[in-house]
Amino acid sequence: MLPEPPSGFWAVLRQAVAGSEEDFTRGAIGRAVVLLAVPMVLEMAMESIFALCDVFFVSRLGTDAVATVGLTEAMVTLVYALAEGMGLAITAMVARRIGERNHEGAAVAAVQAIALGLAAALLIAAPGILFAPQLLRLMGGSPQLVAAGAGYTAVLLGGSVTIFLLYLLNAIFRGAGDAAIAMRVLWVANGINLVLDPCLIFGLGPFPEMGVTGAAVATTIGRGIGVVYQLGVLLSGRGRVWVKPSQLRIAPAVMMRLLRVSVGGVLQFLIGTSSWIALVRIIGYFGSASVAGYTIAIRLVIVAILPSWGVGNAAATLVGQNLGARQPERAEASVWKAGLYNVVFLVAVAVVFIAGAQYLIRFFAADPMVVGYGIDCLRYVSYGNAFYAYGMVIVQAFNGAGDTKTPMVVNLFCYWLFQIPLAYVLAISAGLGPRGVFLAIVLAEALMTVVAVVIFRRGKWKSREI
User: Fold this and answer.
1) Which of 97, 106, 303, 396 could be bridged to 312 by S-S, CB 3.0 to 4.6 A?
2) What is each CA distance from 423 to 278, 285, 429, in whole angstroms?
3) 51 pLDDT exceeds 70?
């Protein structure tokens, strides 16, 4: 007779962080959401620390060093888009195989994802190493910046294999339901990065003083050791997916399915990223103060919604595993439950942001114009939190089912064909200024949620094969 799972809020939280062998296709749905979401939330928080850590230490080196990090991160956005898009596909495929109790199929899919990640990383790493100075110049870097920062760019792009594998291997663990393993990997990688960053940048103790390049070396080493940890778990059988030597082979049919699903995932991220760039361009018509206020507010929003992405990822895993177990109704119920939890959380965040906007923005800015624009942006965007909460979960549910095309089309319509033109019309033609852009964000997110809900309720995703 199996022991009863621990009950009570704190007991469930402890189990979520520690990890468990729980079957997510059975038992209470709310409990399953919490067990998956908590470590995923903590994992995503760790993901954001990489960039923050680099900027914190690099800022001591001067403006050019900070600009080098910013320009390089803009280029690395392509790497993130590819890795995250492929990650959506492998999460869906592994979750489906685990739900089917086909652990060998999950392992074979994992191997194909690793092979694709290595190939994609090679295509980016080689030109990144060879043409780092030219890439920085192309991004608008000054001669002084290029001279001092080319090493940072070469190391970060050259080490893109660690980015790909870190994302893809954690996506495998998430799909399998081993969210706690993915979380611990980021703890290890970030801990190493936090220690090595100041040592390699400033030359502390026996370490060489490498300046801004040291930040890239520290980050790449941290990620690399994280990848070694991931591979150790994957090859040793300590998780739900165990890759054995006999499975280290290319399976063309599985790889082609993975590639097809990946295309939609990659385009989702590229569409979303480019739409935000377009909004910044429109806001730029009204001066640097409006851009600064918008940037501060959006950074606050992104940090606050990190837990929501964790809930969305949990929904994706539950959808994939329950579809694999031939339980489409449980898969749908999991999405609505996760969406409800997300609404409660983001509405609470909205109340804090709307009531405390002036205090939050003034913590980061002193210029009255910047503060004014930031307050407007934070409040406007927060008005749409309830819509965004459900939209985020439902979009991830499609991805978890292996249907990355539907979210891609929805994003294309709601962001490129609706949000960007509407922002331009409201801000410039209607004379609302930056508030027109902020309003367009809310309306676009609301439209995206409504469209996604309508399509989701039709249920075609339940019969999606992957």
Assistant:
1) 396
2) 10, 12, 9
3) no
Q: What are the angstrom distances between the C-alpha of 410 and each of 22, 315, 443?
A: 34, 19, 14
pLDDT of residue 4 exceeding 70, the answer is no
Q: Cβ distance 169 to 101 under 8 Å?
A: no
Q: Please give the distance of CA 193 from its chain centroid, rounded to a whole number.
A: 19
Stated pTM of the model: 0.88
Cβ distance 175 to 90 under 8 Å?
yes
Cα separation of 80 and 229, whole Å?
A: 21
> Which residue did the predictor score with more confidence, 287 or 9?
287
The answer to which of 253-262, 263-272, 376-385 has the lowest mean pLDDT is: 263-272
CA distance 148 to 14: 46
